[in-house]
Write a structure and sequence with these properties.
heterodimer; A: mainly alpha; 1 helix; B: six-stranded antiparallel sheet; six-stranded parallel sheet; elongated
Amino acid sequence: MKRSKVSVPLVALVVGAILLFSCALWAVAVQHIVPDICHYPPTVQELAGPIRCEK
Amino acid sequence: MVLRARTIIWLCGYVFIAVLPLLLGLVDLDPGRGFWINFSVAMGFVALAMLGLQFLLAARSRFIGDPIGMDVLLRYHREITYVAALLVFAHPIILFLTDSRFLPLLNVWTSPLRAKLAVLCVLLLVILIITSIWRSKFRLGYARWQAIHALLAVAIVITATGHTVLVGYYVREPWESFLWILSGCAFIGLGVWVRIIKPILRRKRRWIVEEIRPEAGGSTSVSLRLDDPESYGPAGFNFRAGQFAWILMHRSPFAMTYHPFSFSSSAEHHQHIQFTIKAFGDFTHEVAGLDEGDVVYLDGPYGSFALDDDTITPMVLIGGGVGVTPLLSMLETLADRQDPRPCAIFLANRDLDNRTCGTRVDAVQARLQLTVVDVLEQPPPNWAGEVGFLDERVLRQYIPGDPVAARYFVCGPPGLMDAVDKSLNAMGVPPAQVHAERFGMV
């Protein structure tokens, strides 16, 4: 490959930062799109079964 | 397209696939659960996509690797694992910090299967990282480590996908669960393609050892001929000078012990090829034990560190130790093509005994307009050549014509690469004219 002044660890770090930012952005977007009405975390009784939330 | 543009497009593609689960998750959204839990879930989704992408990065695909270089791709595969691991670890930690009622899920004796799978996934990831970083401390041979690495990777993706589907939140719709399972199968299928299907196809492509020749510096040149010239189809086997192939010897093509080595022979002779291998580790020591007539399997060629169709620009080749091998392939190819352009090769070695393939470089000099410059750290008595380390002064003294107008191919250990990079920068050589390949990409 041709020489690049950017190191691979630095690129991985930048990609990581972008992905982390995307996660935060998604969390904010979800909050704006749908209301927080799910009772979470699951109760002890719910641990044994799949988590259900009302829409 | 210049490297920078190709790299940016490549990275954009990577980021897009990694965040694709988030985009799909926005369709038919389940009710929200607050910022921190959503943030944590998002990290879990992205981490799983990244773990799947690791299969793609390690699949030795020319489509994936050639735009940025296979050595960079494999280093990226290694470095981005830390980012994926960070997201995997942060996913439950944020849940526990947000609400302590999540903590009972850690008790694998009482927790539901979805939580058991999550705990198992994290444990496997920790083992994978530890065995990769401290492979030599655990005295894990390369072959054994590769097998463990592959099995752990498959188990991690299976457990993580199982956890995601069983939790079901944001993937409750049947099509969402189906997509997750399908993508998991696709990524694991890639591993099956590389480890099972490709070796089946490779069984007919047997290379026979023609000659074993010891070289200076503890290296060995292995000459191979293709057993069945028709086995690569009508186009035959082709490679570009400077490229490398993954080599397997003494084992069935299904073995996982392929190792990457550069071709050291002319690219004009496709059915008779040669590799020059230095005895560094467990596998490379086996090379000296090869016999004439032994069967060798190749996976390749790969790599963008290679000659292209340019026949005008002066070439400067810089090699350290066994890093000379791809450069030798370039020189012999240029000689076979009767290339008239001025070239220079700088050979940086500790002493004359470690001048790998030096006699072959000297031999090809008569067939090219080639300047050979040896730089020795420990020269013999009455040595008339350069002494010490390769630096800007030495480069300026011997490069034919304007240094800024030449193309550079550099291959060697990290110290040499860094020193040459610094010198070429100081000389004002544009990065686009410098091709570099480092040792130790796996």
